[in-house]
Specification:
about 350 residues, globular, single chain, 2 domains
């Protein structure tokens, strides 16, 4: 774990304590053959107007997840300080090298930003970005929102998600944010392997109320999902009282839980994935989920992957080619009680 007493080596062009609307770059030092004294420009905006909630909006944690990046870019262009009470920091392409390459991970160090927190101020580029987000941006925020989608390999029913808190009052606060966002489904999840290295874990370490999304995916942006994202972002800001904006009322959201690894289906072998279920299907434990076909030995019978839990299909793999261990589906089941 990084030494929290160390300072980030990144340089922020903005003054986060200054009222008004500022745009610029977070500079990551990057000395390479092409540019001896160069830096990586990560776009960032800060809109502040007096005292009030301090909110961090982030997308592009994974570079190939486009919906949040587009939605936050539009928000930067439209938002005016006179309608703000407090401070909104917007980081639309957090892992900018990955975003520029259209990849989940950074082409510089293969870093997965959402598996890199708390980061390291003296580490790789991705580790340095994670350290700055956790120890500078989240450390002076009250609320943190991380807008994900399925990226290139998955597609989701547009969803909000959060980790269920041991504090019922905190869980109720997060559920209220989910309802304000108004995605078709919302789910509270258990912490899976590596969850202590995510943006959500970083927020929890600093006492920041946190909510995320999964906003479609499939390596594309669709008008319908983008509208869910844009309306939802404005509604949560209005809900917090940090931004006065007219938005349509939130549609109802179906509250689910994702309670463990058995909610996920993984490829048992490498081959060509044939799904046997679609997004929105209700399935049963033991039901066939997909076939893996062997195009190198087509006389073999395909391997069958099955669901291990009852539930609603909320996520499905997109590419046909798959390898053993790739996620094919994951489920949610209705939340009995908060």
């Amino acid at each position: 774990m990084a030494d929290e007493g160390k300072r980030s080596r990144l340089y922020l062009e903005l003054d986060l304590n200054k009222d008004g609307k500022q745009t610029g770059f977070l500079r990551v030092p990057h000395s390479v053959h092409r540019s001896a004294y160069g830096w990586i420009p990560i776009p960032i905006a800060c809109i502040k107007n007096g005292d009030g909630p301090r909110v961090l909006l982030q997308a592009g944690n994974h570079g190939d997840e486009w919906e949040g990046q587009v939605a936050l870019g539009r928000l930067i262009r439209e938002i005016e300080p006179a309608r703000v009470k407090g401070r909104i920091i917007i980081l639309p392409s957090a892992n900018f090298p990955a975003s520029l390459a259209g990849m989940r991970t950074s082409p510089i160090d293969d870093g997965n930003l959402n598996r890199t927190f708390p980061g390291d101020p003296d580490g790789t580029v991705t580790q340095q970005i994670a350290f700055f987000i956790e120890h500078v941006l989240l450390a002076q925020s009250d609320f943190g929102f991380d807008f994900h989608s399925g990226g290139s390999s998955l597609t989701y029913i547009p969803s909000t998600l959060a980790r269920r808190s041991v504090d019922p009052a905190q869980t109720e606060k997060v559920v209220a944010l989910m309802k304000a966002f108004g995605a078709p489904i919302s789910y509270l999840g258990a912490a899976l392997q590596g969850a202590d290295r995510t943006f959500t874990a970083a927020a929890h370490r600093h006492g920041v109320t946190c909510m995320g999304t999964e906003l479609g995916g499939g390596g594309q942006v669709t008008p319908a999902v983008l509208k869910v994202a844009e309306d939802g972002i404005r509604r949560i800001l209005a809900h917090l009282g940090v931004y006065r904006v007219d938005v349509p009322p939130a549609p109802p959201t179906r509250l689910l839980t994702v309670a463990g690894d058995d909610y996920y289906v993984y490829a048992p072998e490498g081959g060509v994935f044939e799904p046997l279920a679609e997004l929105g299907d209700e399935v049963k434990s033991g039901q066939p989920a997909g076939r893996i076909h062997f195009n190198d030995t087509p006389w073999r019978e395909p391997a069958v992957a099955s669901f291990r839990h009852d539930g609603l299909v909320i996520c499905k793999r997109v590419p046909g080619r798959t390898e053993r261990g790739d996620c094919l589906f994951h489920l949610g089941s209705d939340l009995a009680a908060i």
